Prior knowledge:
By secondary structure, the chain is of the alpha/beta class. The protein has helices at 7-14, 28-42, 54-61, 65-77, 127-137, 153-165, 181-192, 207-215, 233-243, 264-277, 333-343, 352-363, 365-390, 414-422, 452-466; strands at residues 81-84, 88-91, 114-115, 175-178, 198-203, 219-224, 247-250, 280-284, 310-315, 327-330, 395-396, 404-408, 426-427, 429-430, 443-447. Helix 8 links the parallel strand 5 (198-203) and strand 6 (219-224).
Amino acid sequence: xxTSVRGGQLARLLGQWHSLPGRHRxxxxxxxxxxVRGLLADGRLPLGVRLPAERELAESLGVSRTTVTAxxxxxxxxxxxxxxxxxxxxxxxxxxxxxxxxxxWTPDDDIDMIDLGVAASAAPVELVPAARAAADDLPRFLGSxxxxxxxxxxxxxxxxxxxxxxxxxxxxxxxxITSGTQQALDLVLRxxxxxxxxxxVESPTYPNALAALAARRARISTHxxxxxxxxxxxxxxxxxxxxxxxxxYIIPEFQNPTGHLMPTxxxxxxxxxxxxxxxxxxxxxxxxxxPLDGAEMPPPVAVFDRHxxxxxxxxxxxxxxxxxxxxxxxxxxxxxxxxxxxxxxxDMASPVLEQLVAVHLLAQAPEIxxxxxxxxxxxxxxxxxxxxxxxxxxxxxxxxxxxxLWAELDGPISSALARAxxxxxxxxxxxxxxxxxxxxxxxxxxPFTLAADDLTEAIRRIASVRHDLDRASRPAWRTPAxxx
Length: 484
């Protein structure tokens, strides 16, 4: 189903689109067409969206219809718009350009490479003592087969207690332990998204979520986040009402990669609209434990759920360690049982020893998470300082939490910059990895999970190759890298 954008909505997205006054001022139609192309390149205006009629947009912008007609004609000529008489005009990209969205694995054997493709931290010092304590607990489980498809009871209780402490009364029966957050998402998609089902995601969003949706052959539509202000509530809820997707995947806490935090009122409206449209909300809470500036967190989205429309997923990768493959699903008890039955056909159960390690770490959560927050806040500030010193022409929203910056570059050079950075020992996650069909070339994700000195050195190296990108060079094959 095709979504549409109204004239007032598009006018708000366009902002100050007029050509700047001066000797070489461009015609208004050319400035308008270029502004629409910019929205498409940034991912704020999704592909396949029906634009408003020429008269409607002209009234919303306060320009003549002739200006809009000429702008639409220019967009059709460059391949950014497809029109059909009597049916309207839809956004496209020239020549069917499309960029893959999933990362691939590469051997981690280059000690000189600064890897900014993975947004995860090293393990806390408490991990080894927790592993030793877990090994001491293991004998009491050795008399059974060791298969616990829903997870160990004590770990489910610990996770449920965390939700209850955040204001969502939760029992252990509402928790399914998984092998990481990615498996939690995969299981929910296997159960809820048949082939060809419509799904709504943010743009940009987590690339491995896009890969999981592609594996389900879902029909993906997007809601574009503004790099500075985040979600446009009217557009997000409008997209839900228009597409009526089977499922919507949302990251409301320090969104990956933009770092935005969804306000409370939008969370409540989102759940109400999802109920009205029959949409299941999958809420990824991977970064919920990582507010960095002491601000009060909004309530979980599940607080507003009265009709079992919200499925929350989370895990221990970001606040603890990515190598500890422990995640979870919070949902209604009947849904948890259905997911567990499905999970048996995938991997039977999560490792008992790792679940016991997780129990011990969660018991120390206040100390571990507080230390992680201080560490990340220091590294975030070091990264911002390095950007201001070496790449002052770049812009970025400073997130109040999470682990990533979403930097707006000084041109549509993200993929080219990632290739060039590899030559100086920096691995980057270019913007198109986080969207669909080749958009987001003016952005790049910069995690601040490495040591501050490494982040500063990485930005210095990136700046050293930035200004060489305008020179023609021979393309070369690159080793695929993981994006996480």
